[in-house]
Amino acid sequence: MTIKKHYQNLVQRLEEIARLNGIMDTLGWDQEVMMPIGASETRSKQIAALAGVIHERATDPVLGDCLSALKDEISDELGEIERCNIREAQRSYELETRIPKRLVQELAELSSRGQGIWVTARQENNFADFAPVIKRFLKLKTEWAQYVSPDFLRYDANIDLFERGMTMATITPIFERLKDELIPMIHIIQHHAHQPDTSFLQGHFALNKQEALAKKISRDMGFNFEQGRIDVSVHPFCGGSHPTDVRITTRYKTSNFVESLYSVIHETGHALYEQGRPYEMGDVPASESLTMGLHESQSLFWERMIAQGKPFCFHYFETIRAIFPDSFRSVSADLFYRAINVCKPDFIRVEADEITYPLHIILRYEIEKGLFENSLQVDDLPQIWNELMKEYLGIQPPSDTLGVLQDSHWSGGAFGYFPSYTLGAMYACQFYNTLLREQPNTEKNIAKGNFAPIKAWLNEKIHSQGRLYSTEELVWRVTGEMLTPNYFIDYLKNKYSQIYGVKFS
Amino acid sequence: MTIKKHYQNLVQRLEEIARLNGIMDTLGWDQEVMMPIGASETRSKQIAALAGVIHERATDPVLGDCLSALKDEISDELGEIERCNIREAQRSYELETRIPKRLVQELAELSSRGQGIWVTARQENNFADFAPVIKRFLKLKTEWAQYVSPDFLRYDANIDLFERGMTMATITPIFERLKDELIPMIHIIQHHAHQPDTSFLQGHFALNKQEALAKKISRDMGFNFEQGRIDVSVHPFCGGSHPTDVRITTRYKTSNFVESLYSVIHETGHALYEQGRPYEMGDVPASESLTMGLHESQSLFWERMIAQGKPFCFHYFETIRAIFPDSFRSVSADLFYRAINVCKPDFIRVEADEITYPLHIILRYEIEKGLFENSLQVDDLPQIWNELMKEYLGIQPPSDTLGVLQDSHWSGGAFGYFPSYTLGAMYACQFYNTLLREQPNTEKNIAKGNFAPIKAWLNEKIHSQGRLYSTEELVWRVTGEMLTPNYFIDYLKNKYSQIYGVKFS
């Protein structure tokens, strides 16, 4: 066979797998948003059947042969996209085939069982019941790392699954720098006499009004409702099966509209990335989104860099006041801006503000690192957790439920995922800085609700690039620099010194 | 291998296919109810990928070997359910494997193309453009019949696909009898001086009230919302992926609430059949629903035998009047009952009442029969259609759009489907008659809104029987008789002589 033929054969196989995965994503969305509660056992069986088919296709030896044939004959006939598809397919094939079936099954079984154990342990504030799950995962994930990336440190192999190319060698010094800067900032803010008034954010906000507002702003940002939808689920997420079918969810509380509004903005950031993927390339790896951190950079770009900024708050304030006149009668745009940017150490990561959030992440990163390096023991985690919380945020959780047991990640074996959140925050800030340089009118545009140039810039620079470059290279191509925490630190210092009227060294 | 092993192997394969088919059903529902419009091309590709997998599994030679092994050794080790699963699997395997791939592809291609041609031809009232599609289908479906059931008459083989065991030899005399009885009835009714007042059924009916009413009645009938849902789509249908996940749809018009209410009742009838299937047997053929006609008998049982009956109308009338007081201020329960049972010949099948409906079906049956027997020519269909409409219903469509082009069935090659609608109506009536005999309190129960004994009877006698018996045998087991049109004719005569105050001979 010629290279072209091998390549066509490869693409056909990859597209089939991608489409079956798309179906899996639709089932996942349906399960969270639409499925009747009594169908959960049925759905598990359906998902298992489809997962079996996908696994069979992804590990098909004929796919392996096809990849070998292409690997041996890299030629000028193949362009950048083709080479990317081959490279990505090779990586996926290795990930799928290098791990013994026994280990795959044991991990799947532990994920499923671990979830239930964690739910109960969290409810009952009983870490001891959950500890064996973590221990077992560490053992299996260590073994897994040796099969997948024998040359990597164990924790690096786990990080690489979510944030390809990223290692402790890069992350640790950046996180150390963040600690050095953020801990004193938080201390200063916390001990400052004047705290912004946030009382007006609590009240009664009719759900249909919240929904209309969230949809309006999502549409303004550029979410394409002809290729997507917004629904309600217990936990907000961005799902869907393809750039033409992107589905985000949120949840509405009558007592607080900011939470759901900003979660819609966050998920719309993810959604714009998905809708902007270069699917004209076909349903192939090159058209897919990059790492978890880069995805998070897109949601945080819109949520924090734009929607928590002054121009955005000032632009939408009159709209918000018109919708909820009772709550905002005697509030100014500036007060609203300050209220949604309040910095306050709290126990729960997902509710944290943009200054304290990185410390929640760093704490988890240090624990995971210590566990994989055997410098920490699982049984000591509650104590270590609470000590680090005290050291970083000055507060101590009253229970493990509000401490070490709060996140679901470890119950499913997702070690190495947490750093992506803060890497995303730094990417977002670095991207925003480049945008301001390249489009000096950006803040004026935001102040007018004109997001089209921003979306176009993200589409061109990031979304349409698919997987052609590594995250590292993409950041460099977009910003002209490697990842640096400087922009993030400067941004936080400028913004919060102004909000709190303090000076940070 | 032992028989038990072969059988376990078979079940595993059948359950995988059933679960993948369940996923396909979820995708179908999603496409009609949830999918963003821009995702249609994506969805087609996903469906094609999954259909390819299902076809591969359903025609797997290893499945064939497994079936052969079981066929050769029918033994006492296997019970009724096991033998049913083997029999059904054998039939499906033959249906899937007997037809040459070329013919499968040509039929699929023509179905997809035919749909588009029909839509345009109907819009433009241009039968000539659609005629070649019918001609080609007749040729392919004749060829198909020879592969699938070489011993059957061609049209019988097509009928058998939807209504297994039913042939022209059974249908023709029954339909002749219906013609003899119904045509004069319609004539008498149409020329009767007094027609029921239906004007109050038109008005303004708020959608949220309609929805609440429809859901209430569906729940009263026994629809289990923990294993199902009701949504909105362009055309009402009953879908979903499993007895634990049954999804019905309707559409609401503000000008008329009866249409959507009775469509919800109709689809709930289908849904109760699906929810009542014996899925504790596993995801195997024995647990599936029987023929199209039997399914239709369940929807018509609730829609016509129950919900268009006097006890039902009288029971819900006060509820309806309380919800829509403006429309029903000066209307009585009896007037409402008469209005929803008006008999009036019209051009469109799907809007027909229960007396004229069978004639729409018989007309189509006679045309299909004539086409397969070569006694009718496709080019003559518009003329034949209009002549038969005049003869059976006394009216002539002003255009082919309202005549021969009105139904989508032929555009997808579904020849032999139409008889099921009227077979279903007759089964429904025959079942209802048996129920009245076995549970003499039935009408009193309906008058109190107590449907539990009725649902329990249907569950026991029909739904829980899955595919253990043929439709013919099931009808016999339930009613003690073979299918007969007598109950249906007597029912119509009694009911409409009372409504119109006339005597039918």
Describe this structure in words.
Two copies of one chain form a homodimer. By secondary structure, chain A is mainly α. Chain A folds into two domains: 3-162, no CATH class; 163-505, Orthogonal Bundle (Neurolysin, domain 3). Chain A has helices at residues 3-33, 40-58, 61-72, 80-97, 101-124, 127-148, 154-162, 168-190, 207-221, 258-275, 292-306, 310-323, 325-328, 333-340, 357-372, 381-393, 419-438, 442-447, 452-461, 471-479, 486-500, and strands spanning 228-232, 238-242, 245-250. The first copy, chain A, has a three-stranded mixed sheet. In chain A, a hairpin with a 2-residue loop joins strand 2 and strand 3 (245-250). In chain A, helix 1 (3-33) packs across helix 3 (61-72), helix 5 runs antiparallel to helix 6 (127-148) and helix 10 packs across helix 11. The longest helix of chain A has 31 residues, at 3-33.
Short description:
Chain A is mainly α and about 500 residues long. In chain A, about 65% of the residues lie in helices and about 5% in strands.
End-to-end gap of chain A? 66 Å
Percent of residues of chain A in helical segments? Answer: 55-70%
- What gross morphology of chain A would you assign? globular
The greatest interface between two protein chains, and residues involved on each side, is: A-B, 36 and 36 residues
Number of self-contained structural domains of chain A = 2
Helix and strand string of chain A, N-terminal first? HHHHHHHHHEEEHHHHHHHHHHHH
Radius of gyration of chain A: 23 Å
The chain-level structural class of chain A is mainly alpha
* Largest sheet: spatial strand order of chain A: 1-3-2
